[in-house]
Every structure is written in C-alpha cells, then in structure tokens.
C-alpha cells in the first residue's frame, strides 16, 4: 500500500510502512484475535518481549535493553502511558535515565510498529498484537488511557478508501477514536468513586 506512508511522522518515515509487510502476511494471520480490553494482546509480557526480540532480529535490528525495558513498562501498564511516566519508572530502575534515552527508545518502537502514539492524549501504548497484523482502529478512553485496538481490516480499508476518495492521504498509521471506557463510565455515575479511581485501573463492576 503506497498510500500508507505517513508524511507527518518522521519516526516512521525511514522504515517501510507496516502496512506493506502486513499486506503480505495478512492472510496468514487472518485468524480471530481474542484480546481483552486493557491488554495489548493475549500473551504474557515475557512471551510478548520474546516475540518482539525475535521480530527485531529478523529485521536486522536490536531490541536493546533500554528499548526492551520501555516496551516492558508499556506491556505491564496495559494502557496508554505518557512519556514522562515512562521516564519516572525508568528512573526508579536506572536513576540516571535522561529524557532523550526514553524518547529514542520510543521512536524506535514506533518505527518498528511495536507501539502506537495516541495523539489525543499524548501517550503511548503497545500495538495489540505487536508484530503480526496490520494496525486496527484504536479506541482511546480520554479519561484513563485505556486503549482497545479493533482488528477490523475491512472497516479500516473502507475508511481509508473513503478518505482517499475525498482527496486526502492519511497522515499517520494510527486511526484513533475518542471514547470513555466502561469503567470510567461507571465511575462517572458515582462521583466519589470517579475521583478515587480516576487514574487507577479499577474495574468497576
Ligand atoms: Zn497496532
Ligand atoms: Zn477509562
């Protein structure tokens, strides 16, 4: 797909668009994905890290310890996380961590298609299945940063076709919709709980 080249995103431009290789592998991975909301995918963080490591090796790149750590933090978070939160967590492990270290690691993970930048809340999240598929459509809770990636290739392609029919080129791999997750909707209904749970991943049931 030549149209998948994101013009406004330097982090992606040096690397072939994910859609190119996804187009080749989409049939092989057309099975149904079962991923719970709040989790990037169904596997354990360890399995996901091993998968990402292998994927980078196949591309002739290296998942260095810092890149791996940032990816691990995002996997453990299970939701969109701001760069400065990642930096804070990094500093708890490596007190000398400087902002550029984290930003460079994020740039690498973005360009490899392993994570998404969520522009509406200026945060980052792990791609729903890391290395396997074309990106889906991201639904982002504007309250807590919960992200669900809808794996709907036909819907995504139809949307992109409509955008191009209108004379536009999509400027980023990410297609995101703003939402309010069920937990935050429930918290909104109970004002006290909303305050207590605004940043905690509490499942209100
Ligand atoms: Zn994705
Ligand atoms: Zn939420």
UniProtKB/TrEMBL annotation:
One of its GO terms (cellular component) is cytosol. GO terms for molecular function: DNA-binding transcription factor activity; transcription cis-regulatory region binding; zinc ion binding. Keywords: DNA-binding, Iron, Metal-binding, Repressor, Transcription, Transcription regulation, Zinc. It holds the Pfam family FUR. InterPro entries: FUR (IPR002481), Fur_C (IPR043135), WH-like_DNA-bd_sf (IPR036388), WH_DNA-bd_sf (IPR036390). Its cofactor is Mn(2+); Fe(2+); Zn(2+). Binds 1 Mn(2+) or Fe(2+) ion per subunit. Gene3D superfamilies: 3.30.1490.190, Winged helix-like DNA-binding domain superfamily/Winged helix DNA-binding domain. One of its GO terms (biological process) is regulation of secondary metabolite biosynthetic process. Residues 1-44 are annotated as: Disordered. Belongs to the Fur family. This is Uncharacterized protein. It comes from Paraburkholderia phenoliruptrix. The lineage of its organism: Bacteria, Pseudomonadati, Pseudomonadota, Betaproteobacteria, Burkholderiales.
């Amino acid at each position: 797909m030549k149209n998948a080249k994101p013009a406004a995103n330097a982090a992606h431009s040096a690397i072939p668009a994910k859609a190119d290789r996804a187009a080749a592998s989409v049939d092989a991975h057309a099975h149904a994905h079962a991923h719970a909301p709040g989790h990037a995918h169904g596997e354990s963080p360890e399995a996901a890290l091993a998968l990402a490591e292998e994927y980078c090796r196949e591309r002739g790149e290296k998942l260095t310890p810092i890149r791996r750590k940032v990816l691990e933090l995002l996997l453990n978070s299970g939701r969109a996380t701001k760069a400065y939160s990642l930096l804070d967590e990094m500093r708890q492990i490596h007190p000398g961590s400087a902002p550029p270290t984290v930003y460079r690691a994020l740039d690498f993970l973005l360009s490899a298609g392993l994570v998404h930048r969520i522009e509406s809340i200026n945060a980052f999240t792990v791609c729903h299945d890391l290395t396997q598929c074309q990106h889906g459509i991201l639904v982002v809770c504007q309250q807590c940063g919960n992200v669900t990636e809808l794996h709907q290739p036909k819907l995504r392609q139809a949307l992109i076709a409509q955008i191009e029919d209108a004379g536009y080129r999509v400027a980023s791999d990410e297609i995101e919709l703003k939402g309010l997750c069920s937990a935050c909707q429930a918290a909104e209904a109970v004002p006290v709980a909303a305050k207590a749970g605004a940043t905690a991943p509490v499942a209100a049931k």
